[in-house]
Amino acid sequence: MKEWLKISCLLCIFGFVREIRPSEPYVTEYLLGPWRNITDEQLVQYVYPVGTYSYMVQLVFVFLITDFLRYKPLIITIGATGVIIWSMLIWTTSLLSLQILEFFYGTYMAAEVAYFTYIYAKVDKKYYPRVTSHTRAAMFAGKLVSGITSQLMLYLDLMNYKQLNYITLGTQIIAMLWAFGLPKVHKSLYFHREKINTDIDQQTQLPGEDNLDVAVPHPKATPKKPRALLLIWEHTRTAYTNPRVVQWSLWYAIGLAGYLQVTYYMQVLWKVIEPEPEIAWNGAVDAILTALAALSALAAGYLHTGRLKPRTSLLIMVFLSALEGGCVLICCWTNDIYWSYAGFIVFGGLYGFTITLASAEVARHLEDDIFGLVFGFNTFVALIFQSLLTLIFITGFQLDPVGQYAAYAFYFIGVGVLYLTSVLVEWLWCPAPESETLENSLE
Description:
The protein is mainly alpha-helical. The chain is built from 17 helices and no strands.
């Protein structure tokens, strides 16, 4: 087996196993069940927001630490924090323990950046498209298996909500142990980019001096941290002075923030619509949504490859954003749980298409070696937006779940209106042929 394919397979196994978390579709059912003494108001107001804020604060630090520590330690951290989280879910009962758990959940999610960037430090650039699809597919496959497993366990009455956590804990232990076996990374994009070359230079001798230990003089090495920070700043400046990168990065961040908020509290909404379901179909919904999102992402990638012009892509996003808002309205304005399920599934499928399209448009205008930096920063901006949504609608106005989701629906509709306005302004300001893109007209 080729080395790049071997490394890809090793990382994909980690991603697959880590995503097998059958307890996640039912975490709200579990927390509001007889195993814990907590109300739905405490859960929404004092528990879940901690995870949102923790994720946002930790992401920027985790990104830099990931590069400095060369990826593998952070991948191990993903597994270790997973073990901590589900151990606390099973064996603790207090409100404080849940808040501490949510802090670790922020770490668990923030450290995911190491999973997505590790492979780029280990394989040649020509394999980037393949390894990217491998790692994404592994995660989708894990989530699909997770949803099917959880639904079967409950439907066949083999496990209850609490017992599903034992499966999740087991997969996190396996993922952590597997991470120790990943190959080490000897260089990284910023803090260790010239380490190998420096070591080689120090061993080079003068021509004709084979018997003398005289090294070739070379300039004194510049301290790594200032150089790394300077390079980060230069890459950031280069990326975000491109108008198209800014335009699509903003959509990426706004769309991701809305998606995270909708998925984070959906189980609470379903609990309001159907307080005591005979059987909750959350696992099946997760499985169908994952499959549909994967197919949508593939469709977006196929359509984007040389087929969609920038303004056409923007108009598609305008239309799909409005549809996403409509799906969220269906989720919260119905008294039938199955209509809410259907709205959420279609919403997830649409999001899989739009986020893939936005990612492709951002990547189209970037240099190869700054993908991780830009998408990491865009995710950080998305978490700022998500924190603002939490602060305004949950902590501030303290809306009930139905009111919250109505607000999120109009948030997506508002995004569509915003980008429709930007398309119209761009068309009036730059009525040049489509081949003359916005960035060329501004240069």
